[in-house]
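look at this fold:
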Amino acid sequence: MRILLVEDEPRMAHFIAKGLREQSFAVDLAADGEAALYQFSINDYDLLLLDVMLPRKDGYTVCRELRAQGMKTPILMLTARDTVDDRVEGLDAGADDYLVKPFAFRELLARVRALLRRAERVRTDVWPDVLQAADLTLNLNDHSALRAGRKISLTTKEYALLEYFMLHVGRLLTREEIAEHVWDENFDPFSNVIDVYVRRLRKKIDEGFTPALIHTRRGAGYLFTAEAAAEAGEDDVE
């Protein structure tokens, strides 16, 4: 996913861009409103992060002009202005969401992902409310999981990991990919935390059930599929 970040304060721009890039997003930068409009005229973006107080053209003006041009890309406004009138003005200008500074990066990331999911669902009309693999179902609305009709109790992180697996059924996922999409910027790449959580998840959704769904590919990563039994010789069972 490609994001345009429009922020005139260099330290803030660096902080946000660094965090997003660590989560595998491609990030372009613009330091004023005119530059933002130019960037959108030559590139396609999946999301716009737009500061309000900008040189040359403020964020409200940029937002209105882009919407007037028919641009449907999600816009998340970032600003220190936190009155109700300020938020209403931003939303009326065409913004999809509004985040007040200072904010935790995790909250920004959560809002970014939510806007991208919503946009993909509108674009393709295929984003499901319930994911299914074999007799395992995962409800994306209430975060409930069932296997063979039996409720599976999951922690927040176990749910996030299972959701990522089930959104990529049949695809080999490396530990690096899992870290980028499931863990935040504090993740230690030298730890074994991913392996620990995979073992926990495997005990909850695979032990006592058939077929097994989580498969380890030694030296490569993990494969989530009900059809991997045909490749049993390649599994490194933990």
